[in-house]
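Running co-folding for DLZ.
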Amino acid sequence: MATAHHNLSQFDSPLPSAADMRFGIVVAEWNREVTEALLEGAVRTLRAAGCPDVNIQIKYVPGTFELTLGAQFFAEYTEVDAVIALGCVIQGETRHFDFICQGVTQGITQVQLHWNMPIAFGVLTVENQQQALDRCGGRHGNKGDEAAAAAIHMVKMQLDMEAVSPNKERDIHSVN
Ligand code: DLZ
């Protein structure tokens, strides 16, 4: 449930075990103080669900705009079950904000549908630094936690459905 008072680190349903899941995390270097805090939250949540560190790969990209291609690199070149994309876009004086937000939102949607792979959207789109700090471990929790939890739930859903699917001999990440 998304409300003004929603805490990004509190989940309505318990996390499934992530002991056998593999994750890629792609982190934007812009607004690094914020994105490092998002990364801490995401890794903490994966670990809390039992995901071993060896199953977590972390890569950095220059900015949020590059998260899409970073996620695609994970899909194409690694064996991860899901990607968690972490970034922070802060409204400035130009329209850059709109273009970056639109680009990354549509890009990530495209990549996850093309690869049939969950890509969690851990991107803060905020008006100022304080709003960002409030959402990367501050009074509204941590969007990294939320993104990691979403990734875990989606991998579990995919594995459960794939296990009973009449098409299960197909590679679940096939792009054919
Ligand atoms: C250029 C730019 C600007 C103005 N603002 C942000 C921002 O708030 N957050 C962010 O993650 N990245 C920003 N960038 C960088 C772009 O995402 C991208 O890295 C560059 O346009 C190069 O492609």
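Result summary
The radius of gyration is 16 Å.
Strands lie at 23-28, 56-61, 82-90, 119-126, 136-138, 141-142.
Job closed.
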